[in-house]
Specification:
heterodimer, A: about 300 residues, mainly alpha, MetI-like fold, 2 domains, 2 strands, about 0% strand, globular, B: about 425 residues, alpha+beta, D-Maltodextrin-Binding Protein, domain 2
Chain lengths: ~300, ~425
């Protein structure tokens, strides 16, 4: 009994010290993350436009009115479906290209690897707006290099809904695969040589080694790059905004972020914009948690 | 334990939410009216700003010479980012200018935001004010009050290639219905050319078709707007315009994404036989592949000899409501927006003046301006004067409607009905 009391007190004291150490980080988090999210949720409950911001009109509390209007808008659901599909393609593409090139760079000579890394870092370092614009130039209907090479001068790559989405997805993959590639390359290099050697001595084929030895060891890294990619690609804005000129013909290439900007922020409907922001945050959390749970169910330690 | 913590957080959160409201800046007016110091002016940047800057500099020097202890600081604002700049200025009067140039379509939204001062008295008490064209002055009014001095007007008319028309033995269209067959004939004879360069996002090029058919964007009754773009007449206009966005005139793959600038750009590049362009496009067309090979006529209306009502665009000069130097601001407005400097701005930039007498004089000396002035005097139209228009504009309701029809995704009835619903949602809020 007395022993237990002592242990409890001990643990509680420990907790206090831990909180004291965590306090600065928590304060920063609360300031940088908590307060904006609080403001976002708060604004989403009001009719908050430019007139209200600059004091030209009275504030009106709508409660969940903005959310109701949003969820009953059929365009929102179309855009949401497009966003999910587009992000899925981008994530898969990024992972495939990134992983393939990471494996490739462990198997080529130093000069080839250096070249590969320089190219990847170049793509990575290009600002999104500049990268999107350069891609647009390359794929320009009349003067573009790609049409010149293919002999399809006059063909518009941004007109058809799916071709336009495909082009933007390619650009997104181009600028986000280097992160996956570099991370996984480091991961593969960090695998002890003895482990691979042991597998070889046991008579495992290359394929078998990759599947049963390297892949499980890389899983924590893969997890991180996947979640990162999901979050990035779900929130893509610049590429769609620049390459499809603000969401494509008749808005058929809209994704959630661009939709929020056009419907809400450009139109000064900040309340509605905040509501879309809250919904997006909730969706991302849901997707990420769902992904983590699915992994845990397959027996992964997280 | 975890639940308790969550409940506490939720309760605190709810209390905070219930007790607070998002920030609002207070009423902007400062009340003071200083006669010295710095007067801050925002003007729009232009593709070729040199001549504008020279005229403005002259006005500033004249103003400073007449007012000792006053300096004028002119800043040039990008048109594309104007919305953000003005919103910031309205939210924080300290960073706002005293005088600003702005587009007349933005007026209603800016006034609702409390950004600009009512200058009805100043304009009506000004001797030059009596000569302002009433239709143009109307674009500076909200609920009968004047919030800006019209600095110049922008109207659009039909540009066509004289060499192409001569070669094919064609004459410019005399009715709206003639445009499509004419454009089709040109493209059939010369497949490299667009029959007429128009765009799915070119609202101000498209609206004359709707107005000519007797349609309206919206109707106002007792201060409340209702969309009218789904009326029978308006639908005919939408159909007439979108007929031009076909493969045999202006292929949608090439034209559906174009706005006004891109539409004129194709004409400039020598790739279109006709386009709808403004008086303000003249300088750039004169420096292009089409230079010396084009002429302009008013966009024809329904019957021969009539003119399709044009959109009366243009820019205003206004006094910000938060200014601490209102008297000085109004005096500078009257100088830069007065007859003398409007004349100078016309010479420098080709901006069409807003005073009846100055405009007439300009037309007399320059036959190029004639079709534009004719169009203007035949009766120009405007967008609905309501703060909600800014929202409808930002949400690209009308461009989306034209594009839906142009791409064949929706027929005219479906697209106009959807646009009307979206507009009514904005008007209702």
């Amino acid at each position: 009994m007395s022993q237990q009391v002592v242990r409890t007190r001990f643990r509680r004291g420990d907790g206090r010290v831990a909180y004291a150490y965590l306090a600065p980080a928590l304060l920063v988090l609360a300031g940088l993350l908590g307060y904006p999210i609080y403001q976002l949720v708060l604004i989403s409950l009001f009719d908050y436009g430019q007139e209200q911001v600059s004091g030209g009109a009275a504030l009106e509390f709508l409660g969940l009115g903005n959310y109701r209007a949003l969820l009953s808008d059929s365009q929102f659901w179309t855009v949401l479906a497009q966003t999910v599909g587009f992000a899925a393609v981008c994530v898969l593409g990024t992972l495939l290209v990134g992983t393939a090139l990471a494996v490739l760079s462990t198997r080529v000579r130093t000069w080839a690897r250096t070249l590969l890394f320089l190219a990847a870092l170049g793509a990575w370092a290009t600002p999104a707006v500049a990268g999107s614009t350069i891609w647009l130039f390359l794929f320009d209907a009349n003067f573009g290099f790609v049409n010149e090479v293919l002999g399809t001068t006059g063909f518009s790559w941004t007109y058809d809904r799916w071709i336009a989405f495909g082009l933007v997805a390619a650009q997104v993959i181009w600028c986000s695969f280097p992160f996956v590639m570099v991370t996984l390359y480091a991961g593969i290099k960090a695998i002890p040589v003895e482990v691979v050697e042991a597998a070889a001595l046991d008579g495992a084929s290359t394929w078998r080694t990759a599947r049963s030895v390297i892949l499980p060891l890389l899983r924590p890294l893969l997890l991180i790059v996947t979640i990162q990619s999901i979050i990035w690609d779900f929130k893509v804005f610049t590429q769609i905004y620049v390459m499809t000129n603000g969401g494509g013909i008749a808005g058929r290439n809209l994704v959630l972020n661009v939709y929020a900007y056009q419907q809400a922020f450009a139109a000064s409907q900040y309340g509605m914009g905040a509501a879309i922001g809250v919904v997006m945050t909730a969706l991302l959390l849901l997707i990420t948690f769902g992904y983590l749970r699915a992994l845990r169910r397959t027996g992964e330690e997280l | 334990m975890r639940f308790v913590r969550f409940a506490v957080v939720a309760a605190v959160g709810a209390a905070v939410v219930a007790g607070c409201a998002p920030v609002q800046s207070g009423p902007a007016s400062s009340g003071s009216d200083e006669k010295t110091g710095q007067l801050r002016v925002w003007l729009f940047d232009e593709v070729n700003r040199g001549p504008k800057e020279a005229v403005v500099k002259e006005a500033v020097e004249e103003f400073q010479a007449a007012h000792s202890g006053v300096t004028v600081d002119v800043q040039y604002v990008q048109v594309q980012t104007r919305a953000e700049r003005f919103k910031a200025a309205f939210s924080d009067p300290k960073s706002a200018p005293d005088v600003a140039e702005f587009g007349n379509t933005d007026l209603a939204g800016y006034v609702a935001a409390g950004g600009f001062a009512d200058i009805s008295g100043e304009v009506s008490g000004w001797d030059e004010g009596a000569d302002l064209l009433p239709a143009v002055l109307d674009t500076a009014k909200v609920d009968g009050k004047v919030y800006g001095l019209p600095w110049y007007v922008g109207v659009r008319a039909l540009y066509y290639r004289t060499d192409v028309f001569a070669e094919l033995g064609l004459t410019p269209p005399t009715t709206l219905a003639e445009i499509a067959p004419l454009a089709r004939r040109v493209r059939a004879a010369k497949p490299d050319l667009l029959g007429i360069s128009v765009g799915g996002k070119y609202t101000y090029g498209a609206m004359p078709f709707v107005w000519a058919k007797g349609g309206e964007i919206a109707e106002e009754e007792g201060g409340k707007h209702t969309a009218a773009i789904d009326s029978e007449q308006a639908r005919q206009g939408v159909a007439a315009y979108t007929e031009l966005l076909r493969d045999d005139i202006c292929p949608p793959a090439q034209c559906a994404g174009n706005g006004g600038d891109a539409s004129v750009e194709a004409f400039r590049a020598g790739k279109a036989a006709m386009t709808i362009g403004g008086d303000f496009n003249r300088k750039s067309v004169d420096e292009s592949a089409a230079a010396g090979k084009y002429a302009v006529v008013p966009l024809p209306g329904e019957t021969a000899g009539s003119i399709a009502p044009a959109f009366s665009g243009g820019n205003l000069l206004g006094v910000m409501s938060g200014t601490e130097r209102k008297t000085l601001a109004v005096e500078f407005l009257k100088l830069l927006g007065g007859k003398q400097y409007q004349q100078k701005m016309f010479t420098a930039m080709g901006n069409l003046p807003t005073f009846a007498d100055v405009q007439a004089e300009v037309a007399k000396n320059d036959p190029f301006e004639e079709p534009f002035i004719k169009t203007l005097s035949a009766g120009a139209r405007f967008v609905p004067v309501t703060a909600d228009w800014a929202e409808i504009d930002a949400q690209a309701v009308l461009p989306t409607m034209f594009q839906q029809v142009a791409t064949g995704a929706q027929d005219v009835n479906t697209a106009t009905t959807a646009a009307a619903e979206q507009m009514n949602a904005a008007f209702g809020s």
